[in-house]
Design brief:
heterodimer; A: MetI-like fold; two-stranded antiparallel sheet; about 65% helix; about 5% strand; B: mainly alpha; MetI-like fold; 21 helices; about 70% helix
Chain lengths: ~400, ~500
Amino acid sequence: MSIAPRKPPLQFALRLKRALGGKTGWNGLAAQIAFAAILAWIAYEIVANARTNLETQHIASGFGFLNYNAGFDVNQSLIAYNNSDTYWRVFFVGLLNTILVSVIGIVFATVIGFIVALCRLSPNWLLSRIGGIYVEIIRNLPVLFQILFWYLAVLAALPAPRQSISIFNTFFLNNRGLVVPQLVTEPGLYPFIAALAVGIVLALGLRRYARRALFQRGQMIRIWPYVLGCLVGLPLVSMLIFGAPLKFELPQLKGFNFAGGARIIPEFVALTVALSTYTAAFIAEIVRAGVMSVHRGQMEAGSSLGLSRAATLRLIVVPQAMRVIVPPLTSQYLNLTKNSSLAVAIGYPDLVSVFAGTAVSQTGQAIEIIAMTMGVYLLLSLTTSALMSVYGWRINRSMAA
Amino acid sequence: MNDLSASPFVRQDLVAERAAPATTTGFIGFLRMRLLNSPGNILLTTLGLLLAWYIVVPTIKFLLVDAVWTGSDRTACLAEKAGHGVGACWPYIEAKLTQLIYGFYPEAQRWRVNLTYGLGAALLLPLLMPRLPAKGLNSGLFFFAFPVVAFFLLHGGGIAGFGVSWTASLLQLFEQSIGGAGDLLVNLSKSSAIAPLPWALGKVLVLVGFLIHWLIFPLTGLRDQLQLSSVPVWGDFLVTAVIVSAVLFVLGGGMRSGRRALIASLLTFAGIAAGIKLMGLDRGGFPIVDTRLWGGLLVTLVIAITGIVASMPIGIALALGRRSSIPLIRIFSIAFIEFWRGVPLITVLFFATYMLPLFVPGNFAVDGLLRALIGVAIFTGAYMAEVIRGGLAAVARGQAEAASALGLSWWKTTSLIVLPQALRYVIPGIVNSFISLFKDTSLVSIVALFDLLGSLRASFSDPNWSTPTTAFTGFAFAGMIYFVFCFGMSRYSLFVENRLNAHRRH
């Protein structure tokens, strides 16, 4: 006959204490109440003062103004916009411009950053020095300084359209911006896209099949010729049948300006150049640190296993370096996106410039507009950090396995 | 038997090392090993040389060879006048130098700015040298006394009262606010469906306000008496000094061990009295220079120093809050930190410029510079919190546990054991955030403050100096200033880091 262990007494008071005050108990509860009271008092003060101040300035609070006509022009817009559109549309125009400059900046920053990192890691003394000097100079100057430098000094010093600096007679750089060939869609575009999509799906399927064959039957299948055929061959066939998908319309100098082609406004050029070179300096340091964090022995172990140098890099070094590189790299991408708000200094119509700038001065709805603008950036950075935690969690899991 | 010494030749000493082959040492070896060891590397070296040639030569030519060094207006810097291609236009910098450094600060008062720079340097430099003693006193002076002195030096103006008056006025404001909230709730209950709840809450608040009113009555009465006397500032100062010293004496352990605290308090008050006397704050102080006249490097440094000084306590409080075991405080700290870290500084500055004035009572006019300072302090505080949290995490658990085992309270454990170690770990991190803060001060030029970059931009529009090279000259000059500051600080951070990691080096 077994004796049932005696149950501990039900400690209601203790549990309540835990639930209300956390580890600190009643003291914690008292602290929380006091803290909540202070917060409530501050919130009350803010609301009460804001209400009185808005009344004296005759500003009606609320988001109704978003449906009013904006009545101002924006000099670059990805969606159709004219000055009789609403503030909602202004918001989206600004948001899209922010996204545009951020995405293009991120692409360039990554490319330049990796090149500079390779220079710094190069055994060539001169190149590593040049890379080091680039990083030191760029990192130690404010980003706004660099944006203004490109905009006020470099781009303003460029010649007028007639004396444009021509690059292969397709790109023209002048003080009114950068004139580039314009892409004109042709009827062959849709078949081309369809063929490309089919090619991608087929290639992914092939890869899946090959990996399964490798892992389950130990059979190596060489798939790259077929993948290449899917990705390049299919679109080529579609181009042969339906004609070219796109046509480049080259800019031509006519009179005092260019006809044809698309003009990229100088604000955009200055902002992209400054942001991508600035962020590239930080990315270069991150990449360098990542590559140097992989122990030398890893490379040696790889070659002693008989892997080729390329295979060692691809299968051993890069995955380990990426684990170190990716989290700070994302935070640099985020920084670039946040820094793109400096567009307001040179008048590139991004979210902050047209919405938190022009719209605030026109409507006076500072609280609503700035809260919305902050909300956009906040959403972006919280999403990024959530994705990064998932990434970190997966890395940790794969490390433990 | 074999006698070795008798054999014809036995080497008695080691063979000396042969010199390395001439092709691997010295300059030649360096060239061969690091620059020209393979066709690919030769190509890269050539490319690098070309790149350096096309950047370095034009830069030197622009800054020194082709530069114009003297002149009184733009004509000196035009190619027609100089007779050759014109590089940097240094007379323009000479003409604008005062504007770039002081803004429109009145010329007769500029000694005050210089004195502040000197004081700041005299306090900061010893703080940065790990060898020098008295870090506690030094940092106390730099972080607490210097900002106050700098405010009265730069801004001017005097004080009408001291501790007693300020505390009394502050508490009175609080009491009025609480009473106002109570009245509001009572009024609200008349038109609300759930009348009893706001009514009861409102009545409680009114009661609390009433209680505070009577509790602080001695203080307000004392203030009114002091204000009526002939020397309000000194009377108030004396009363404050006596009260604070007595309280510190009692808290420090009374007759048993409070003597130290008493002496420290009295010395501090003596210092404050000397400061008040020297700057004549009781008689109105220096003439007031409105912050709209400030500009150039002055504003940049004021924002950077205020930002770092104000962000330290904010950052420490938030970092401790984030590690707190009390749920509400932890959640609040996390939300606060993540919010301000998630938005760009420029929106924070817009927030401070456009929204903050709406949040304070209408009769408080918040100065433009002060708004930017508040925004910068909150923003940097959130970043600083994460830096300091890293330091707190780096302190071994055993330290706090040992302190608890000795019977120290949470406050004592934190302030005497954990924080000093944590802060020492994060000095490089703090310097790095100071570098980014220093660079970020340039953003205030967007909200209509004239810092170094803002003054520079403003000086471009001067028609007297508009030449094709003005902008390049200006950027070259300002860039050098920014670079010297930031590069110096990053080197310092490296130095501290090496010092901290000295025990880890092999």
